[in-house]
Automatic annotation (TrEMBL):
UniProt xrefs under CDD domains: PseudoU_synth_RsuA_like, S4
Keywords: Isomerase, RNA-binding
InterPro entries the record matches: PsdUridine_s_RsuA/RluB/E/F_cat (IPR042092), PsdUridine_synth_cat_dom_sf (IPR020103), PsdUridine_synth_RsuA/RluA (IPR006145), PsdUridine_synth_RsuA/RluB/E/F (IPR000748), PsdUridine_synth_RsuA/RluB_CS (IPR018496), RsuA_PseudoU_synthase (IPR050343), S4_RNA-bd (IPR002942), S4_RNA-bd_sf (IPR036986)
Pfam families from the UniProt entry: PseudoU_synth_2, S4
SMART domains: S4 (SM00363)
Transmembrane segments: none
Family statement drawn from the similarity comment of this UniProt entry: Belongs to the pseudouridine synthase RsuA family.
Source domain of life: Bacteria
Entry-linked Gene3D superfamilies: Alpha-L RNA-binding motif (3.30.70.1560), Pseudouridine synthase I, catalytic domain, N-terminal subdomain (3.30.70.580), RNA-binding S4 domain (3.10.290.10)
Enzyme class: isomerase
Protein name: Pseudouridine synthase
Length: 248
């Protein structure tokens, strides 16, 4: 049976990043088969029991990776206490315990990645990982060139935070209905980021869709459909994440 380093097994299970897992080990908060382990070089097998802070972690045997076209009106979670539809409802045949990487708002559609690979999820969600994500927004009013300049430069939002520089362009405008369709590419992932940026420049979002995530697109999918990522796509995500976040 293949052996892996303890911190990798913890990262794979979604406990924390490898670096954070190493800290937990050094602090004596990890047990393997009931014994506290503080050696970073320790290797574990698939049937070894790993406890973190007294809780047994669930280890996945097979890693799976999905690109999902999330519809509007669906929660980016594995369960909802209000009984609303969640993204994992679309994966009823999947035996592995998968979860979304990040989230999309309830009323936002588009690309969402789901996996049981905790290491990749931690890398992609790390604040230093600058993955480009492109959104197409239908907004109120006619967006002008000055509005685009503000988005490209970065805007100060209600919480006092300045957004990073973005790529922005108007796809179309409708004077009669007084709305615009705008493409916005950002690498930040704060809650309601895109909506807040447009609200700041006076053009509230009416409808929002995420069309790309890094190099991945929705090509070939319709709302509610999903596909597995290829080995090459997964490899590229890892390479890009490690390169951009400088986590080794």
């Amino acid at each position: 049976m293949a052996e892996v380093r303890l911190q990798k097994a913890m990262a794979d299970a979604g406990v924390a990043s490898r670096r954070a897992s190493e800290k937990l080990i050094l602090e004596g908060r990890v047990k393997v088969n009931g014994v506290v382990v503080k050696e970073l070089g320790t290797k574990v097998k698939g049937d070894d029991a790993i406890e973190v802070n007294g809780t047994l972690i669930e280890r996945e045997r097979n890693k799976v990776y999905y690109l999902f076209y999330k519809p509007r009106g669906v929660i980016s979670a594995v369960k909802d206490d209000k009984g609303r539809k969640v993204v994992t409802d679309y994966f009823e045949g999947e035996k592995n315990r998968i979860y979304p990487i990040g989230r999309l708002d309830y009323d936002t559609s588009g690309i969402l990645l789901l996996t049981n690979d905790g290491e990749l999820a931690n890398l992609l969600m790390h604040p230093r990982y600058k993955v480009d994500k492109t959104y197409v927004a239908k907004v109120e009013g006619l967006v002008q060139s000055d509005d685009l300049k503000r988005l490209r430069k970065g805007v100060k939002m209600k919480d006092g935070h300045y957004s990073a520089r973005a790529k922005a362009k108007v796809i179309s405008s409708d004077r009669a209905k007084n709305h615009s369709i705008v493409s916005l590419t950002i690498h930040e992932g704060r809650n309601h980021q895109v909506k807040n940026m447009f609200e700041t420049i006076g053009h509230p979002v009416m409808k929002l869709k995420r069309e790309t995530y890094d190099f991945l697109t929705l090509k070939g999918l319709t709302s509610g459909q999903y596909r597995e990522l290829s080995n090459e796509e997964v490899k590229t995500l890892y390479e890009n994440a490690r390169k951009n976040s400088k986590l080794k």
